[in-house]
Amino acid sequence: MLRWRSHRMQAVPPCGPSATENAFITHAATWTEVMAKALHRLANPARFLRIAAPLLPWTAAGAAVCIGAGLWFGLVESPPDYQQGDAARIMYVHVPAAWNALAGYAGLALASAVALVWRHPLALVAARCIAPIGACFTVIALATGSLWGHPMWGTWWVWDARLTSVVILLFLYLGYMALIHAFDEQETGERAATVLALIGAVNLPVIRFSVDWWNTLHQPASILRMDGPSIDPAMLLPLFLMAGGFTLLFVCLVIIRMQTELARRRVMALRRAALVVPQASDA
Amino acid sequence: MTRKHQRLVGLLLAGAALGVAATLVFQALDDTLVFFYSPSQAAEREFRPGEAIRLGGLVKAESVEHSADSLNVRFAVTDGANEVFVTYNGILPDLFREEQGVVAEGSFLPDGTFAATEVLARHDENYMPKEVMDALREQGMLVDENGQKSY
Question: Is A219 touching B (CB cutoff 8 A)?
Answer without folding.
Answer: yes
